[in-house]
Amino acid sequence: MIGLVWATHAGRAAAQRLADAWPGECTVHNGLSVREAWESSDAIVAFLAVGATLRLIAPLLGDKASDPGVVCVDEAGRFAVPIVGGHAGGANVLAERVAEVLGAQAIVTTGTDASGIAGLDTLGFAVANPQMVAPITRAMLDGEEVAWESDAVWPVPPMPVGEGPARHKVVVTDRIGPHGPAAAGALVLHPPSLVLGIGASRGVSAAEIASLVDGVLADAGLAAQSVRCIATADVKADEAGLIAFAAQRDWPLEFHPASDLSQVDVPHPSEIVRQAVGTPSVSEAAALLSARTHGRAADLIVPKTASAMATVAVARLTPRGRLAIIGLGPGAADLRTPRATDRLRKASIVVGLDQYVDQIQPLLGKGVRIVASGLGAEEERARTAVELAAQGHAVALIGSGDAGIYAMASPALEFAGDDLEVEVVPGVTAALAASSLLGAPLGHDHVYISLSDLHTPWEVIERRLEAAAQADLVVCLYNPRSARRTQQLPEALRILGKHRPITTPIGLVRDASRDGQTVTLTTLADIDPDAVDMLTVVIVGASTTRNLFGRMVTPRGYRWMPG
User: Could you tell me if 497 and 513 lie in one domain?
Assistant: First the structure.
């Protein structure tokens, strides 16, 4: 719950705007009820000056792991400033949310965030020794090398690499004690890699399950902080002791039908269990099934262990990698979407055409691995990105415009399997950028056609052009002309010209939104194909498209514009 604290009428109005925008998330506290908000909220937005807020919360501060995050918003609603609990309390993220609703600017001063470095306590891993976060973070900010040792490849943002031998270390492991790696002086992070499969007799107590689980984890040298969830059979969905135990540990419960559990191969099936619940295994099968759901593979690392009324097994998942296929837009930085920028900064590996990599180089933090290649290697880039993501990395595959329009999403998704997470991040297409510069040529039905016959036979392209011409669609031509392909554009214009007048407007936009941008409005009769190249988008109007005061406009159809 987010507590909203105000002192003036302006503050109260802004607080109400947040409450209206986030229904069910907020409690509005009248006046300066900071203590009340502190005791009842997970985070606080104070519509007060930073100094006043600090004086009010100073007696309440405990430690960064348990204090609520606090964001201050000034009287004019111009700035949202996280002052306590930037990471652990979620104040940095909350400040961004507040800024979005109020039209304010988030002012984040946390060192890692301000430097574009991922916070070590924001990776989704449990921190075993929080006292080591600050010194390791300081070393990262100072440019010192920090060694990264992990039991598995996790899709995490890039870690900065300094010069010289590493004096600092981060260890990512689900093991503890003598079973774990040598971690003296290192920051130890426990990833969510373990699934507990639990079977239980009716009436089992939470205490018995707790004793069994704690013993199993201790004997195996496994960190309880690495437990992702508990898995069991759906017939145990109302088992009070199991539900109470999961709530005590704050571990999610996942339930599987006996029919699904019975399909999982396990080392210790039981006919008695089959007769009781319809599957030869609950704990082992449930652990493996949930681990495979959350990862790309799973291993049973602790077979079922029994107490009087419960059984426990532990499976370890192999993490899924993450592939973000990103459309960078037409070139201008302000036409790149915030989501594209966010996903780029979360990638540890960036794969793309060399000129596009150069375009976004300033966004990439230290430690990013770049895999760049030249023109004509689209399939190779797509395959490389998928292979790296399948190994567990966080990968960004970049291209211009929109990722799904004559770009990298299609070839990448042909190679991608179900063993990795894939996100396609949309971007502003070249056609949209060109259209905005011309006026509104795409205001009604339109079609995109590539004139490149490298992947599509020319006979197929001709049929598509003929169909578009007969249907009287606005036609946006991609890849219109290259040094070797000089005849396709004149032939396309001839086909379109059979079905529309020679006065039909045509827009030519080269390097839309980039340095050297040119915009030309011409007609079917006057177009010079020699003035077109691969960097040009050609938009051929329909019979209704008009040149209105130097703007190319295709009416929506609300009011028909006769020729």
Answer: yes
